[in-house]
Amino acid sequence: MGTHLPLEPGSARTAAAVIPQQAIGVTVQFGVNFFPVVDPAKKSASDYFDEALRLVSLAEELGFEHAQCVEHYFSPYGGYLPDPVTFLTAAAARTSRIRIGTGAVIPAFTHPLKLAGKLAMLDNLSHGRLDVGFGRAFLPQEFEAFGIDIDESRARFAEGVEVCRRLWSEQDVVWEGSFQRFGPVTMLPEPVQKPHPPIFIASAMSPDSCAAAGRAGYHLQVVPSVTSREQLQSMLAGYREAWREAGHPGSPRIQIKYTCYVAEDRAKALDLAETFEVNYVEHMAGAVASWGRTRSDAYRGYEQFVEKVKKYDFRQSHADNKVLAGTPDEVREQIAVLVDWFGADPTLSLQFNPGHMPYEDSERAMRLFAEHVMPAFTGPEQAA
């Protein structure tokens, strides 16, 4: 799934809220993500990749924790990134410290032997900086093009994740599953990170999926704009509880994804935000139109996307903190509210170059964010 789905109303608490005391002096990590909702007539793929890779290098320079990208096909709604591994390989070659991640890859569309091998190779090329996010996909036309029954998506997803995990951490793997049978197979190259790269599960709306990820010891990627604030809080609470009850060592990693528009001038920031959020919604409307004729027990309620997209209201989305936009002070206040809602432990994964936004605006926003927003969330021990 993409960076955000600006559909559901959340709390009406606005960006102008006073910073909660519990959000002051906490440590929050920030990353960058790339989801190209781009009309090829407005920006070519080569230009988009050149600009995105420049932003990856800048993100490392400015101290962002990760850079990640999503997998989609065939349309301006993410179609520039059919293979995240290719983009992330180029990103890894340009950097040395920032973590790189899939947010997410789709096991249903790639044989797990191929997918596990590509990702293990990328972990080596990046010297152990890879985070692997897995997702189910949700667009009927993608499943149709690959000749895969959309009703099998959950089972294919679960099998694909488990096959990759075993291939990365075991030798002479024999697999007798519902969709794949092979073995014994020993994967080469082995991943650098042991027993395997960190695994993230992307979840849009399902508390059950979040809890299952916690029980399995997997990390989590969520998209807040597709849920209400209360629903997301419940999803995160269930995930954290499942992680603790399963007795997994350490702390889970949670990534929450937002678009982010920052400018010295508030009017410019909001104009950019409205322009490119509406661009996102318009292209999303085309991508989800197939839900008007598709029904699946694996995606209950998704047929409502078509009508929900038509009702999108940018001002309400901004007021509900589903998109970050404004001056550095205003965006800092929005993030403080998010910390109050969701805790300081999630990493906020931010998209600074949505749609065909001019590169100069994206770079300026990242620099303003790093200079004026990030320092407020470095924690007391680092700020001293």
TrEMBL record:
What Gene3D superfamilies does the annotation carry? Luciferase-like domain
Molecular function GO labels? oxidoreductase activity, acting on paired donors, with incorporation or reduction of molecular oxygen
Give all residue intervals belonging to the Luciferase-like domain: 29-341
GO CC terms for this protein? cytosol
**Coiled coil stretches, renumbered:** none
Q: Name one Pfam family in it.
A: Bac_luciferase
Superkingdom is Bacteria
Question: Which InterPro entries is this protein grouped with?
Answer: Bact_Lucif_Oxidored, Luciferase-like_dom, Luciferase-like_sf
**Full protein name:** Favin-dependent oxidoreductase
Native source species: Streptomyces pyridomyceticus
Question: Gene encoding it?
Answer: pyrC
